[in-house]
Amino acid sequence: MAMGKNPLGGSARARGGTSSSAPISVSEAVNAAKSQVTAMPTLVVAGEVTGFRGPNARSGHCYFQVKDDSSAMDVIIWRNTYAYLGTQLRDGMQVVLTGKFDVYVGTGRLSFIARSVELAGEGLLRQQVAALARKLEAEGLMAPERKRPIPRFCMRVAVVTSLSGSVIDDVKRTLRRRNPLVELDVVGCAVQGPGAPATIMRALQVAAAARPEAILLVRGGGSFEDLMTFNDEALARAVAACAVPVVTGIGHEPDTCICDMVSDRRCSTPTAAAESVAPAIDEVVAAIEGRRQRMGAALSTLLYSEQQRCESLDVRARQTMLSRLARERSVLEAMASRHCLEDPMAFVEDRAVQLMQSEQRLHDAMPRLLERGERETSMVAARLSSCGEALTRPHEAFVARMAASLDALSPLAVLARGYAIARDEAGHVVQDASQLSVGQDVSVLLGKGTFEASVTQVVQND
User: Fold this and answer.
1) pTM of the full predicted structure?
2) 127-279, what's its fold?
3) 151: helix, strand or coil
C-alpha cells in the first residue's frame, strides 16, 4: 500500500496499515498544529458577520463567525479591540478583519484572532452616520431647546418631496381627509441619488420663501443606502438653519436619519407628518366647542363672582352711608340745640350781662383792694424804716471816721491854712521854680477859688 504524507512532517501508512513511527499524544498533535498555524502570515479577510455573541459578560470578548458563499470561520475579537471599534457588530454586517489564525490548545479549535475590524458596505455607512450624528449633537443642533414649536393648527403647509412617487398623493389625501382648510404648497425635488441633497436644499429655500407655517420634508421607505441622502451633513445643516420649522417623515418607523435628528419634529412616516400639522376637522370643531363651553362656564362663574362682589359692595356702601348720615344728623342736632343758634342775639346779651357783672365786681372790689394795699404799704414802710436805721447806723459811724481821716489828709485842708498850688499850662503841679520861665502863665489853686497869673521873675533858692 502506498505511503501518505504526514502533515507534521513524517509519513504514515494508508488506513488499515501500520505506522512506521510511534504515535503522538493529542497535546503534541495540537501543539504541532498550533506551531504551523502560528507561522502563517497576517491575513486580511472580508466576510459577513453571523452568530455574533458578545461582549461576554465576564471577559468582554466577542465570538462569532464570518462567512461568504461557500465557507465560514470562527472569529474572536478581544475586549480592547472591540472597544476601539466604536460601534456594535451584529449579524449581517460586512466587515474587513485583519489578524492571524490561532489554535486553542484546550480544544484544538481553529479561530481567527482579529486585531483590527473595519466596517464595509452598509456597516461602514452606519459608522459614518453615527460619527456625523455625534458631531452635530456636540454642536447643539439636536438639542431639544433649539427646536422650534410647530403650530397646532397650521393653515398653510409646504411639502418638499419627489413629485413622481406616491408620497405626495398620500400627503394630499391625508390633508384633504383631515382638514380641507389647510393650504398646501408642493415643491418638488430628488430624494435619492448623488445630487439629491442639493435639490432638497434648494427646495427648502423655495418653500421657506413662501412663508408657510411649517415645511414637511418627506419620502417613502427604502434601504439604508436609499435613505443616505438624508444623512448628508450639508442637508442636515440646511434643515436646522431653515427659516420655517421643518417636520420630517422619512421612510418607515425604524428608519432614523440625521435630518430627523436636527428637524423641529420627527414623525415615523409621511402620513404621520401630515397628520401632525393638520388635526382632523372634527377634532378642531370639538376643541372649539370645548373651549366655548369652558369659556361660557368661566364667564358665568366670573359674572356670578362679580355679582356677589357688587352685592356685597352695595350692602357695605348702604351701611356706610347710613352710618355717615347718622353721625352727620347727630352733629346737626347738637349744633341746632345750641342757644346761640336758636337766638343769635342771646350770645351778645349773655356777653353784655357778663361784662356788667364783671364791672360790678370790679367796683365792689376796688375800694377793698385800695384799702388793703394802703395797709400793706404802711406796714412795709414801717418795717423798712426800722430795719433801715438798724442797718445804716454802723455804717454811718464808719463813714464819719473815714471822712475825718480824709479831711485830715486832704490837700484842701492845707490850702485852707493859707497855702496854694501852682500848675503850668499843661496842668502839671509846679514843684520847683526852675520849671517856670518869665512870662509863663500859671494857674494858682487857693483854699477857696483859683486865679491866673503870669511869671514876672523866677528866683531859685540853693
Assistant:
1) 0.44
2) Rossmann fold (3.40.50)
3) coil
